[in-house]
Amino acid sequence: MKKQAYNRVVYNGREYRQAIVERDDEGNVLRVYEFTEEQPFTEWIGGSVELK
Fold first, then answer.
1. For the chain, what is the largest distance between any 2 Cα atoms, rounded to a whole number of angstroms?
2. pTM (2 decimals)?
3. Helix (H, G, I), strand (E, B) or coil at 13
4. How far apart are CA 26 and CA 35, in angstroms?
5. Which tens digit of pLDDT belongs to each residue from 20-49?
6. DSSP assignment, residue 47?
7. What is the pLDDT of residues 7-24, one digit of tens each?
8. How far apart are CA 20 and CA 2, in angstroms?
9. How many CA atoms lie within 13 A of 5 on its CB side?
10. DSSP 31-46
């Protein structure tokens, strides 16, 4: 599993601020959620991303 953090994520018509995107080994989105504290094993990407 891969965890990446962004300032802004748009996914399924919803906008998340300070959000983490979790993906499986094939790149499929497993979960998107907002966070308030630094999360372990998370790569900070920054910026905005729109997921389809």
1. 27
2. 0.92
3. coil
4. 24
5. 999 999 999 999 999 999 999 999 999 999
6. S
7. 999 999 999 999 999 999
8. 10
9. 12
10. EEEE-SS--TT-EE--
